[in-house]
């Protein structure tokens, strides 16, 4: 397995950085290897990624999510992939730490992992996220429920739905789109505070990362 960890400080509040990461379908905006993410249900997503010129598709489940603290996901089929992003106050803004793990396949992927080229790619991706959120100053949407053991605990709200998803009724986005019943607006728009960032309930001992 190949594991990559990188972090970056962004000049926005923890809630803003966290809420943007709940918008899985916006990942292609700043994660270069991710071509598409679609929300299938409250905690299940479908990913299309390109790694070393190889295209992969797989489903991944959100397995643990605590507002303003962390989001963890992992694949549910034969493609081994897992990720975790965490958020901590730092230098008046937020430190975002991203860990991704997958099983390299083929010569190109294995060579890239051996040469640590993937580490550089993830660091560049975090730079893209920094540029994206600092230029917007607010998230494209938000979901402030929790997920523990892959089960949403948000009072009926949809977990991790991205703004602007056709047919899924995503939460209100920055452009004022329709809101999902039970979804909470992004920070700065009257959001109900979630658990504090030191609330680490629901850590999954079986997580790959």
Key traits:
single chain, 209 residues, alpha+beta, 3 helices, globular
How many beta-strand runs?
Answer: 9
What's the domain count? Answer: 1
Range of helix content: 10-25%
The main sheet comes to: 9 strands, antiparallel
First-to-last CA distance = 11 Å
**CA radius of gyration:** 16 Å
**What is the overall shape?**
globular
**CATH-assigned homologous superfamily:** START domain
SSE class: alpha+beta
CATH topology descriptor: Alpha-D-Glucose-1,6-Bisphosphate, Chain A, domain 4
- Overall mean pLDDT stands at 73
Q: Low-confidence segments, ≥5 residues, pLDDT <50?
A: 106-117, 155-209
CATH architecture: 2-Layer Sandwich
Could you explain how this protein is built, in words?
This protein is of the alpha+beta class. It has one domain (2-153): START domain (Alpha-D-Glucose-1,6-Bisphosphate, Chain A, domain 4). The protein has helices at 14-21, 106-114, 117-136, and strands at residues 2-10, 34-39, 44-51, 54-66, 70-75, 81-90, 93-102, 146-148, 151-153. Strands 1, 2, 3, 4, 5, 6, 7, 8 and 9 form a 9-stranded antiparallel β-sheet that branches. The longest helix has 20 residues, at 117-136. Mean pLDDT is 73; it is low at 106-117 and 155-209.
